[in-house]
Write a structure and sequence with these properties.
single chain, 236 residues, alpha/beta, Rossmann fold, 7-stranded mixed beta sheet, 10 helices, 7 strands, globular, S-adenosyl-L-methionine, tRNA_(Gua-N-7)_MeTrfase_Trmb, transferase, tRNA (guanine(46)-N7)-methyltransferase activity, SAM-dependent_MTases_sf
């Protein structure tokens, strides 16, 4: 799905190793409505991946705080958050066509003007399309926990990624993660606490902010007694 990125100045000094990615491609059926949305609405709301920082103010038609979300799934929470916070511009990053098509439908139905999509690997989007210290916030909700020990190295929340993410947050900007897998929550807390550019807003886990809606899957899990852990850190 993605090609090797063109290194920036910082990357050129980094040792060569297997690049982290924000996703693993999985099978999924794209409905006719989603395919139609990709064809007809995509040109309006999808920002093509580029190896340079776009003029985001021109993209949105205004100057406003920007929040990026990694892996929005089918886009239900993303659309609700954008609708509830019209003063903020949102960039949703997702690679899977069914989810992108579904969010395009939600954007059209709700007439959202403060939401754009980049259909590409979020790690490369952060590196090349987001300027350092430019984001007001970064959302990472329910990323794949990779529960098997031999797969832990595939988890998105790792020191290298957190360092990159932190570098894109403006001073006082926030990084908000949520997971329903307790071992991953503990791993996230450990990694985020170790990043010198971040400060925890809570003693450990944070309360869910009112603007993060509860998804149907999360609600189902809560009814079954499953836990959900939010982590909220701010950038120095």
């Amino acid at each position: 799905m993605t090609a090797d990125h063109t290194p920036d100045a910082d990357d050129a000094q980094a040792p060569r190793h297997r690049a982290i990615r924000s996703f693993v491609l999985r099978a999924g059926r794209t409905t006719e409505a989603q395919s139609r949305a990709l064809a007809t609405l995509g040109p309006r709301w999808i920002v093509p991946f580029a190896d340079r920082v776009p003029d985001w103010s021109a993209v949105f038609g205004r100057e406003a705080p920007r929040v990026l979300e990694i892996g929005f799934g089918m886009g239900d929470a993303t659309a609700k958050i954008a609708a509830a916070r019209p003063e903020i511009d949102f960039i949703g990053v997702e690679v899977h066509p069914p989810g992108v098509g579904a969010l395009l439908q939600r954007i059209d139905e709700a007439r959202l003007s403060n939401l754009r999509i980049v259909q590409f690997d979020a790690v490369q989007v952060l590196r090349q399309m987001i300027a350092p210290r430019s984001l007001h916030g970064l959302h990472i909700y329910f990323p794949d926990p990779w529960p098997k020990k031999r797969h832990h190295k595939r988890r998105l929340i790792q020191p290298e990624f957190v360092q990159l993410a932190t570098s894109r947050l403006q001073p006082g900007g926030y990084l908000h993660c949520a997971t329903d897998w307790q071992p991953y929550a503990e791993h996230m807390l450990q990694v985020l606490r170790a990043e010198p550019g971040l400060v925890n807003t809570a003693a450990d886990y944070a309360p869910r902010p009112d603007w993060r809606p509860v998804s149907k899957f999360e609600r189902r899990g809560l009814k079954l007694g499953h836990g959900v852990w939010d982590l909220m850190f701010t950038a120095l």
